[in-house]
Amino acid sequence: MKSGILHIIFILAAMSSMTFRTASGQDLPRFKVLEMDTNGTLYLHKTSILCKREIAERLTEGKYQLAEPNNLGLSKDFAVLTCKTLKQKVPSADSGVYWIDPDGGSHGNAFQAYCDQQTEGGGWTLVWSYTFTDYSNFQKASNAVTPRPSWTTSNANVRVSTTVPFSETHYEAMDFSLWLSIGKEFLIKSNINNWIACKEGSGSLVQQRDGTVSCKLVKQLSGQCSGVVPNRVKSSSAEKTLLSRNHYYYFEGNRSEGWPTHDPCGNNQANQLKARPYITSTTSTSAVSRQSIRNNLMLRVLPSAFGFQARQCLTIGQDAPRFKVLEMDSNGTLYLHKTSILCIGEVIKRLTEGKYQLAEPSNLGLSKEFAMLNCKDLKQKVPSADSGVYWIDPDGGSHGNAFQAYCDQQTGGGGWTLVYSYTFTDYSSFTSSGNAVTPRPSWSASSANVRVSTTVPLSETHYEAMNFALWRSIGKEFLIKSNINNWIACKEGSGSIVQQKQGSIACKLVRQVSDQCPGIVPKSVQLDNNGMYLSSSSFYYYFDGNTGDDWPTHDPCGKDQENNLKGVLNPHGNIFIR
Ligand SMILES: *[C@@H]1O[C@H](CO)[C@@H](O)[C@H](O)[C@H]1NC(C)=O
Ligand SMILES: *[C@@H]1O[C@H](CO)[C@@H](O)[C@H](O)[C@H]1NC(C)=O
Ligand SMILES: *[C@@H]1O[C@H](CO)[C@@H](O)[C@H](O)[C@H]1NC(C)=O
User: Fold this and answer.
1) Ligand 1 mean position to 358 CA, how many Å?
2) Which of 5, 184, 470, 502, CA to CA, is 20 to 30 A from 301?
3) Where is the Fibrinogen C-terminal domain (predicted)?
């Protein structure tokens, strides 16, 4: 149950003064029914439209419509099977991160995934986002796709991912064993090759079976070879290939042999696009591709006599249809869930006899309409919410400009909004001048030359940065986490990260990641043309964004030495604001 005692008291007081409804009804407190739990607790929203009496009236007089619940996919409890299920049940849903549960049943193992609801009819679940190890030397043996999915292959040596990708630039892959449970149709999008949508023939990507596939062109990106699509899946020792006459898409995962063909002519030539539309810096190495799998399972359909059945149910009984009230819109349409607990008669009884409790709505942060200011706001209103992707709207007001962001609700009291996830350009030669953090936020750093990001990072390994201008609207405290240096949480003093101001900060250690120098924390923010740094006696965290100068110190001793952890897989760091 959501807490917020003060809020509950406020609503109860308001409700008790709300016995009668005037003709206009304008000056009465109005409530929006959000949900009813197993004990008959009604969750009402204080900015609601209808007063209690009006709800009861509409229910008894049948002046309502029954409709699909509109929070499908927005919480673990209301996970959908796949993005295709979501598309069928909520055709208007935007592309974004939703909760899915491909094996159905209890939603204990549901997880968040990205849905493309626009391209080629929508309903596509993103299962893999990849980039290249050496895009600028495309035909060299050093070039390969990265990471690769956990499919079977003997010769690949790039990183294997089993992390669900949250966006098209979040380079991860869903556990391959789950792909088949999502569907068999697949969509491949890339910014260097044509987009195609394919159905299985004798060949199958999700079942790793060589043979024919039937593909159609979704977008012709290249000026060359218009209308050519691949027609076969073929395995090689290094990865799967989608063949036309010759390689068209080759998911080659060995960085010491072969190269990952992306040829719109299907001739195994370097005909991939050379322009890189998502890339702003000359030093960036990534081009973007993504692959989605479409669910084609049959779906259960809601009973057509939904409304009729609802009105028939006047007593509680095991065999009576039961409904869960989810929401009521501005026209008094009630959204009910079919696996509900209470029948309509009981809902009316509880409303009229006052046998209910009022509580906070439980879908805060789960849709654009119920965006929170930031993760701290969410933590205060829904203390039990897990870490994950939520809707936030730092400037408040109308939620037209709300967006999804990642919240850490556990570390150091929670309530942290992720604003920056970075990795390194040359981790293995950490102190070489070629090493820098990448990407960098849009803060001022006149000498930095790594890619600037203004894409909101949706996980700790989604290497992007929220527009720097928004950071200060979220808060002033910051948390830095890294897998190669200690975690620290800091309050502003005379210095500030979000204001880019040099001066003191008050930090505490959140986690000692290193064996060295226990308890040392930085004491100040310092400015540099390559990027800001935090200093103890010397550099502790240095966000050096220049690949021709300096190196990005991550020294738990704060002495500007190479004391960062070595040999770590996926080395990275994150800045959160609260
Ligand atoms: C319903 O009431 C029972 C008994 O008071 C309680 O144990 C349970 O947690 C309640 N369930 C919910 C969802 O509040
Ligand atoms: C990658 O290719 C090289 C060169 O052919 C080969 O020596 C190596 O064994 C391959 N890597 C793996 C993991 O098979
Ligand atoms: C409410 O009704 C009006 C007029 O029929 C309609 O234009 C509007 O879309 C409806 N709003 C909702 C949320 O269904």
Assistant:
1) 14
2) 184
3) 74-127, 366-419
| Tens of pLDDT, residues 147-200 | 999 998 888 999 999 999 998 888 899 999 999 999 999 999 998 999 999 999
3-state secondary structure of 184: coil
Distance CA 493, CA 471 (A): 17
Q: Are residues 408 and 512 in the same domain?
A: yes
Q: Which residue has the tokens 């990005």?
A: 552
CB 140 within 8 A of CB 259: yes
Give 419-449 pLDDT, tens digit per residue. Answer: 999 999 999 999 999 999 999 999 999 999 9
Task: Tell how far the Cα of 326 is from the centroid of ligand 3, in angstroms.
Answer: 18
- The model carries a pTM of 0.68
CA separation for the pair 460, 481 (Å, rounded) = 9
Q: Is 329 in the pocket of ligand 3 (CB under 6 A)?
A: yes
Residues 44 and 81 in one domain: no
Cβ–ligand 3 distance for 330 under 6 Å, the answer yes
Cβ contacts of 422 within 8 Å, gap of 6 or more: 437, 438, 439, 440, 463, 465, 543, 572, 573, 574
The domain of 233 spans 126-275
For 130-144, give one letter per residue: b (16+ CB within 10 A) or e. bbbbbbeebeeeebb
Domain total of the chain: 4
Residue 37 CA, closest ligand 1 atom number: 13
**Structure tokens belonging to residue 574:** 């994150």
Of 112, 111, 72, 78, nearest to 92 by C-alpha is 72
Whether residue 353 lies inside any domain: the answer is: yes
Strands 145-146 and 124-132: antiparallel
**Is the same domain home to 55 and 118?**
no
